[in-house]
From TrEMBL:
Domain Argininosuccinate lyase C-terminal per the UniProt entry, residue ranges: 370-438
Gene3D superfamilies, A to Z: Fumarase/aspartase (C-terminal domain) (1.10.40.30), Fumarase/aspartase (Central domain) (1.20.200.10), Fumarase/aspartase (N-terminal domain) (1.10.275.10)
The encoding gene: argH
GO BP annotations listed: L-arginine biosynthetic process via ornithine
NCBIfam families the record matches: argH
Protein name per Swiss-Prot or TrEMBL: Argininosuccinate lyase
Molecular function via GO: argininosuccinate lyase activity
Keywords: Amino-acid biosynthesis, Arginine biosynthesis, Cytoplasm, Lyase
Annotated pathway: Amino-acid biosynthesis; L-arginine biosynthesis; L-arginine from L-ornithine and carbamoyl phosphate: step 3/3
Length: 465
């Protein structure tokens, strides 16, 4: 008897030598792909039912196979299943267990399929399930942002460009900017789902199979929209995973931006917000410290997700058709990016409702830095001055203010009139922060009424999901 029989390999027939111990470990994926056991069993159940429908297996054979698969599912869920590296991957571990439980009938399950279409099916099912969970988490975070935006629609903060004070904005408006980024992420995710939710099952190794299989039937059983249309493409394509990774990379880029702002805002120098203590940690040496670890980590974890996108792209680059073992390397980056995105979205959706705005500090900061200078220019334009001239006049007023250490609103009417005789008493209405914010009263503007309207529209939109 040859050594390969001792190892219980499912493909051992043509081998006369046992697999090298290193190669066995190096080629095995069971340590990470066992995560796919539910999907692997779901796929096998659908395949077995189809084999019965097509008359390839008898009703009795299929019922034994289904019972066997369910008992395996139970044992794995209960952590009573013994995984074997010698059996390489999740597929062969489950298939070998099936045969050892129900006898030779178990060996009939693999009729008309290959691990190549099997693994492609498993990953698509897995990714689809995760997409649905990620979509829910995005919605949860978006709802949290809507809550803050509604509460803080009239809270004034400095708006920045180049991280220099630009114009006053409502904090609610800022939250709605984050909301919009997530809205596009959500759309990208659901768009990706359309291309994920197709069934490769039946593509077999690469060319299809000689049995009278029914791919529409298995696709329906598994909740796929349709079977994929080319067997070669189906066993090799992983661009749906790359799409998910690109979605995830953009989402993480957005979360890293939120993180950066939260980190800045919690610093003593800004002091715009407080994060709840339960989302922060202290320093082992500096007793005064309360560190914004959660946003910092989210910002940091962006790196690994972006890395996984590059891993997956590079993994597929230059691969000839059809399946290649390279593809086994898709799983770890894919799983890690999914876990990371879910954790980060969860953290933010829990943390954001508990953010406390230090309104006075935000207001005071908005008063510095001549945030209403554009309003003064617009005021002059409305009185007939060309905008470029108004820009010049206000620039000189600001220079004067800096010299006097006074904000524009703190200059006297006479002082302001030195720069233009178009300026009258009503100028002070536009120089206030409230006036400045309220005046940007159009779709997408920062006026509190517009922010509240945007919140209402957004709430209605996400309630339809
Ligand atoms: N563990 C493999 C993977 O993840 C399953 C498919 C292997 N197919 C093969 N013919 N070696 O890609």
């Amino acid at each position: 008897m040859s050594k390969n029989k001792d190892q219980n390999k499912l493909w051992g027939g043509r081998f006369t030598e046992a697999t090298d111990a290193f190669v066995q470990r190096f080629t095995a994926s069971v340590d990470f792909d066992r995560r796919l056991f539910q999907q692997d069993i779901d796929g096998s159940v659908a395949h077995a039912k189809m084999l019965a429908k097509a008359g390839i297996l008898t009703a009795d054979e299929v019922s034994q196979i289904l019972d066997g698969l369910e008992s395996i599912r139970q044992d794995i869920s209960d952590e009573k299943f013994e995984w074997s590296v010698a059996l390489e991957d999740v597929h062969m571990n489950i298939e070998a267990a099936l045969t050892s439980r129900i006898g030779d009938v178990g060996k009939k399950l693999h009729t008309g399929r290959s691990r190549n279409d099997q693994v492609a099916t498993d990953i698509r099912l897995y990714v689809r399930g995760e997409i649905d969970q990620i979509a829910e988490l995005i919605t949860k975070l978006q709802s949290a942002l809507l809550g803050v935006a509604e509460k803080e629609a009239s809270t004034i903060m400095p708006g920045f460009t180049h991280l220099q004070t630009a114009q006053p904005v409502s904090f609610g408006h800022h939250m709605m900017a984050w909301f919009e980024m997530l809205n596009r992420d959500y759309d990208r995710l659901l768009d990706c789902r359309k291309r994920v939710n197709l069934s490769p099952l039946g593509s077999a190794a690469l060319a299809g199979t000689t049995y009278p299989i029914d791919r529409v039937f298995t696709a329906e059983l598994l909740g796929f929209d349709a079977p994929t249309r080319n067997s070669l493409d189906s066993v090799s394509d992983r661009d749906f995973a790359i799409e998910l990774a690109s979605f995830a990379s953009i989402l993480m880029m957005h979360l890293s931006r939120f993180s950066e702002e939260l980190v800045l805002w919690t610093s003593a120098q800004f002091n715009f917000i407080d994060l709840p203590d339960r989302f922060c940690t202290g320093s082992s040496i500096m007793p005064q410290k309360k560190n914004p670890d959660v946003p910092e980590l989210v910002r940091g974890k962006t790196g690994r997700v972006h890395g996984h996108l590059v891993s997956l792209l590079t993994l597929m680059k230059s691969q000839p058709l059809a399946y290649n073992k390279d593809n086994q390397e898709d799983k770890e980056p894919l799983f890690d990016l999914i876990d990371t995105v879910k954790d980060c979205l969860f953290a933010y959706s829990e943390m954001m409702p508990a953010v406390n705005c230090n309104k006075d500090e935000m207001y005071a900061a908005a008063k510095q830095g001549y945030a209403t200078a554009t309003d003064l220019a617009d005021y002059l334009v409305k009185k007939g001055m060309p905008f470029r001239d108004a820009h010049e006049v206000v620039g000189r007023s600001v220079a004067f203010g800096i010299e006097q250490k006074k904000d524009l609103a703190e200059l006297t009417l006479t002082e302001l009139q030195n720069f233009s005789d178009l300026i009258a008493e009503d100028v002070f209405e536009v120089l206030t922060l409230e006036g400045s914010v309220a005046a940007r009263d159009h779709i997408g503007g920062t006026a509190p009424t517009q922010v509240l309207a945007a919140v209402a529209t957004a709430k209605a939109d996400i309630s339809k999901r």
